[in-house]
Amino acid sequence: MTSSTDYKALTREISSNVSELRNSVPQVMQGFNALGKAALAGGAIDAKTKELIALGIGVAARCDGCIGFHTQALARLGATRAEVHEVLGIAVYMGGGPALMYAANAVAAFDECAPAQAPAATA
């Protein structure tokens, strides 16, 4: 399955728009960035597991930007397609039919970020 969303382009666009917020509301953005760093910092749960959780929440919350950023992070962290799919199964369980639609898009987003793991296209 492919998605019509180009998640790499979407995350670039969001990042560009967020830079405007860094200039106009710097304290808010510094606080948000600090929250993200603290949440993702090493601890009892490793970084990849934390990003898998974030992807599942992003899918259940129906957030395309979250899907884009967290699939990119998961590809960098070496997540497997099987790991991502299991998390998407949990997201669908928790979020129902609407989450299924976003889970399908998350499959495409991860394949975009980790193309070596994507299944070969069939003719």
UniProtKB/TrEMBL annotation:
Gene3D superfamilies to which the protein is assigned, alphabetical: AhpD-like
Carboxymuconolactone decarboxylase-like domain span: 26-108
Pfam families, A to Z: CMD
GO molecular-function term, one example from the UniProt record: peroxiredoxin activity
Origin: domain of life: Bacteria
UniProt-listed InterPro entries: AhpD-like, AhpD_core, CMD-like
UniProt cross-references to PANTHER family, sorted A to Z: ALKYL HYDROPEROXIDE REDUCTASE AHPD (PTHR33930), BLR3452 PROTEIN (PTHR33930:SF2)
Annotated protein name in UniProt: AhpD family alkylhydroperoxidase
